[in-house]
Amino acid sequence: MIRFDRVPKPDDFDRETRLPGEAWLAANPDGRPRDFWTPFKGKLAEGFGNLCAYSAMYEPVGTVDHFVSCDEDRTRAYEWQNYRYCAAWINSSKGNAPADNLLDPFEIEDGWFELHLPSLQLRVSANIPHELRDRAEFVLIRLHLRDDERLMRQRQEWYRMYQCGELTHDGLRRKAPLIAAAV
Question: What does the pLDDT look like over 35-47, one tens digit per residue?
């Protein structure tokens, strides 16, 4: 994981998503909130540099993650500041984990996680505050960030492309910044 800056809310978000969403919630006190957010997925992806908020790698077909899940707090379903861009399978892995058990990509600091070469495993670094270490380890396990085959194959390919000269260090930094930092 790396730190991401908050993404500015699009001008038409309230009109197109928040207000209809709040009306839907008022009329439907139970069940999964209706998806009014997907039309803004592209803007969210741009704000994250098309990187998954959790794997910190290029994600061309990501999804909108509710950092505070709809199961935890339905009233946050249509709040722009609650959205993170991420790979769909990572979002599914996160599920309804309480936000207090996670680390927010908007609040972590660069250097709290490091990728080790040549294994390409993601680990919690010594730079993370001691009181956050257990949460960081939970995130690595729950979201499969440490060494899941799906991520390992992506990391291996980005690293291979860099080693073979198919991708510059600057390109690697844009597509897989944790690998670029390890190099």
Answer: 999 999 999 999 9
